[in-house]
Amino acid sequence: MRSRGAVLRHAPGKFEIVDLEVDDPRQNEIRVKMVASGLCHSDDHMATGDLPVALYPVCGGHEGAGIVESVGPHTTGFVPGDKVVFSFLPACGKCRWCSTGHQNLCDLGALALVGSRWDDPTSFRLKLDDGTPVAQALGISTFSEYTTVSVDSAIKVPADTPLERACLLGCAAGTGWGSAVNTGEVKPGDTVIIMGVGGIGSMAVQGAVHAGAAQVIAVDPVAFKRETAEALGATHSVPSIDAATELAQSFTNGQGADVAIVTVGVIHGEHVAQAFASVRKQGTVVVTALGNVTEVGIPVPLLELVLFEKKIKGSLFGSSSPNADIPRLLGLYQSGMLRLDELITTEYGLDDISRGYEDMHAGTNIRGVIRF
Ligand code: CXF
Ligand code: ZN
Ligand code: ZN
Fold first, then answer.
1. Cβ(146)–Cβ(126) below 8 Å
2. Which candidate, 31, 112, 132, 213, has a CA 20 to 30 Å from the CA of 180?
3. Domain range spanning residue 227?
């Protein structure tokens, strides 16, 4: 089937709209007509080369929702017309991680940055007109009008789901909310700092509120993002981590935050060190943001790590299990307890994807969304 999609031919590079040929679905695959796709910072990390993929060109996008157009032979669980939200991490349901409640770490994730079929690293579901194989970002490529994916990457959702909002459940929602609720294990009464309140941080704010945090301190240099964070339940917002640390100490007899969640756009070791300094003894630093693949090292005082028993935890998809948590978050949205609409600042056509990323860099978007 013919499609148009946003591809990177190399990195660093820019998304370019090209014609694509999308494979018919094989067994255990579905082809989906996309309705909406979020503009996550991680796709920009692919464009800058921070997050390299194994093969270029790659068709971007890993946060999306659409309607099943066709279903592979002998494939159960989906019929044409079903609504689906993609998970940027596939879940096989059988590996050690899936079977112990950690679907975010499914062994299939190892192939997500290769962009091929899981069972054949030489087989790609998208091609350019001249036959050149095109890798799929995270195995899904939601920046294409149509995409063929493994059933392991798709979650069926009810027919009344507004896909142009629910697309955020594919990355931002689970990643941010889970960073507070699952990875950070925020407890009622806690003081929580969220460093960076774009799409992911805005969801972390809501996760901290749901978990019962008494103080949720949003940190961002952009006033519009701080105001949005307060509208989403942050009790305070400040432009710098130093101000947030002081504030957290003022609420805790000088001890510091219980949890600090790092959701900045481009992470450096120094951000983690700042978060580390902001938490109390036995406090937790959650590292959700991405930076350059080559960057190593976190400049934290080692004695403080040991003597204060502070914890630094990485968080992938907010330690969520997509098959359980995407429906859970959709249920919270449907009951009015989780806000997604407020995060979507601007909708773009596929052809305007570059403007969407320019707006993200300018700080004028919480989340931009492509509407197909
Ligand atoms: C990332 C995690 C690393 C691969 C790309 C997606 N998560 C959220 O954006
Ligand atoms: Zn993402
Ligand atoms: Zn698995």
1. no
2. 112
3. 179-315
